[in-house]
Amino acid sequence: MTDQAFRPPGERPPDRYGDRPSDPRRRKVLGVAVGGLALIVVAWWVWVAAVQSNPPVRHDVLAFRAVTATSVEIRFSVVRDPGVAVACVLRARGAAGEEVGRRQVLVPADERDRIDVTHTVRTTGPAVTGEVLTCQPYEAPAGSSNPSDGEPPHASVAKLLP
């Protein structure tokens, strides 16, 4: 038997793997790089969580009911900063989950931060549910009046803020 058979555990045979001593500078650079990358990932994750947990506009469906075979009434609440107008997209769905109606409505600016709104969505068939797809801040174009009756803004006129 050779003396290689009695090597201590963890010691590599130099004729098989080479005998390269570890470089402390290389380990330090690698540690700093991995630590920096981990810090960037954690900072990004915290930023995304903070932004997503506090959106500028929140909405909740309070109730919905089929008024007729061709319309559904949706009652929902909108929470936003006082004085901010909001454009919301409402949708009605049929029994198979298909969309049977959609409407964009404007929630006018108000001094209250929470407002409850009720709108009727016309449908192409019987609706079994009503939902609010999205609500976003709305900025009326310069020179136009802010409709107080909640009618939907025209797509070429409305400017939804990001």
Brief account:
The protein is an alpha+beta fold and 162 residues long.
Which descriptors would you attach to this protein?
162 residues, alpha+beta, Immunoglobulin-like, 2 domains, four-stranded antiparallel beta sheet, 21% helix, disordered C terminus
**How does the overall form come out from the CA principal axes?**
elongated
The CATH class of the largest domain: Mainly Beta
Average pLDDT, rounded to a whole number, is 81
- Enumerate the spans where pLDDT stays under 50 for 5 or more consecutive residues: 146-162
| Widest β-sheet, arrangement of strands | 4-3-6-7
> How many strands, what sense, and barrel or not for the largest sheet?
4 strands, antiparallel
CATH topology of the largest domain: Immunoglobulin-like
As a whole number of angstroms, the C-alpha radius of gyration is 30 Å
Task: Assign the CATH architecture of the largest domain.
Answer: Sandwich
Number of helices: 2
Judged by helices, strands and strand pairing, the structural class is alpha+beta
N-to-C CA distance: 76 Å
**SSE order:** HHEEEEEEE
Q: State the total count of DSSP E strands.
A: 7
Sheet-strand content, in percent, reads: 35-45%
User: What's the number of domains?
Assistant: 2
Question: Can you characterise this structure?
Answer:
- With 162 residues, this protein is an alpha+beta fold.
- It has two domains: 23-54; 57-143 and 151-160, Immunoglobulin-like (Sandwich), CATH 2.60.40.
- It contains two helices and seven strands.
- The protein has helices spanning 14-17, 24-53, and strands at residues 57-68, 71-80, 85-93, 99-107, 114-122, 129-139, 159-160.
- A four-stranded antiparallel sheet has the order 4-3-6-7, with no helix packed on it.
- A hairpin with a 2-residue loop joins strand 1 and strand 2.
- Mean pLDDT is 81; it is low at 146-162.
